[in-house]
Amino acid sequence: MLPLGRTQGGSSTRPLADQVKEFFSGLLDPKGFPARWHCGQWTDFHGWLYIVSDLLIWSAYFAIPFLLLRFISQRRDVPFNRLFWLFGLFIFACGATHLLDALIFWLPLYRLNGLLLLVTAVASWGTVWALAGVLPQALLLKTPADLERIVKDRTTELAAANQQLQEVAAQLRHRNAEFSTLTNAMPQLAWMAETDGQISWYNQQWYDYTGLSFADLGGINWQQHIHPDDFAATAAAWQHALATGEPLTTLRNRWKRAANGEYRWHLVRAVPLHDEATGAIRLWVGTNTDIHAQQVQQQELERVNADLNTFVYTASHDLKTPIHNIEALLEELREELAPVPVPADVATLLTLMRGAVDRFKGTIGQLTEVAKLQHLSEAPTTAVDLAALVEEVRQDLRPLFAATGGQLHLDVAACPRLVFAEKNLRSVVHNLLSNALKYRHPDRVPAVWLRTYPASADGSRSAVLEVEDNGLGLALGPAEERKLFGLFERLHDHVEGSGLGLFMVKKIVENAGGRIEVSSRLGQGTVFRLHLPAPRPALQEEG
Fold this sequence. Notes:
Layout: E1 6-7, E2 10-13, H1 16-25, H2 44-74, H3 81-103, H4 110-139, H5 144-185, E3 189-193, E4 199-202, H6 204-210, H7 214-217, H8 228-244, E5 248-257, E6 262-274, E7 281-290, H9 292-337, H10 344-376, E8 382-385, H11 386-396, H12 398-404, E9 407-411, E10 417-420, H13 422-438, E11 447-454, E12 462-469, H14 478-484, H15 501-511, E13 515-521, E14 525-533, H16 537-540
Parallel strand pairs: 9-11
Antiparallel strand pairs: 1-2, 3-4, 3-7, 5-6, 6-7, 8-10, 11-12, 12-14, 13-14
Helix pairs in contact: 2-3, 3-4, 9-10, 11-13, 13-15
């Protein structure tokens, strides 16, 4: 072997740059190099053994990159894709060196072969470097045994999950059958609606009631079965519920039975079902309850009640004339007997007659007040300034406050205005305050606390008007509470009264859609709580 930079023809050394220039200028020039057949003593067998072997190696090396290229082009999910390209380049370069080794037997392209060997060396080490980089990741790849075990485990898990799904599906079918049985057996007309108001399901009662199919009732076709007088209010209430998400409750209207065209009263309710994850409404569930018999009965009771009120009012009015006549005759008799001494038994009889006339007049007055309850419930409502109204009542009760030394403590800041008929609210406050003073405890100065507060946290549903006293108190049981609000009933007899005040308070509150509660402790005092309609925001801003 000759040292680098030296030539066979001499020992002088030329610059490396000249040698490189000469190398590339004569890259394809075989000048200066004999073909391999002429180097050494090659036999035909020996030479062709080299040539055929190199060509076979080259053809194999040439085919492998194309196979790799086809593989990675069809399997883009194979990891380490870049490594395959480097490996293909390396094999292709190796094959090219064997091709040149075979050609050198005829064409002495030693320079080109040297350059190709350099390219092959670079590709080889590039592949080694890339392989060393991915080897830690490649070692983490699952073995076929691992993959087979994973597939087996996943198959077992999927089989178990599928079994659970089948069990859940069976339970759902069972629950659905129970649900269908329940909803079809219930007397109400049940239904479900989507968030846009389209009806998606009816129970069997709907089909039995209307005699129609889902195709006839689906969507919004249910609207054609509402009585024309109720259509606008029903549609507006339903659209309001859809827009706000508020439940649709206690909507009374009439629905037509398709079989005979008869309209019957129903009570309609609907509530939204919310998605547990997002809180959004995903479905509406509603019922129509047939209340036709109750509605007809209520209308009949209202008619009878109106007739009774008319009768009571007429009777009380007609009885006033004869009782006034009796009273006038009694006074005339007193005047006739005044100049002469009257026997004691006659004077007693006259006193008893006068008492009977007064009691009769009182009864007539009470009947008139009872008859007025019907008209009180029809009074218009407004936003009442409660503090001003209480002050007016206190002025009316000034003699009673002065006589008893009573104290009134007012706290209405939480609900300063109440939506109520002003005349009716004045009557309620007057009765409660006067009772608190009349039934005071003899051992202490009477005190009354009148306060208001919202019944719910947001104050949107109702307000409470509370009147508390420190008077005699009561031992209240169910029977005593019924008697407390009964007509002409009294639990204390030592104070004059008609037994009409609390009856009227209860009726006024209930007629306005509210309710009254009472709690009391004997010897300590009583608390009345009136749940009244809360003021509307628009009314709170007035005045």
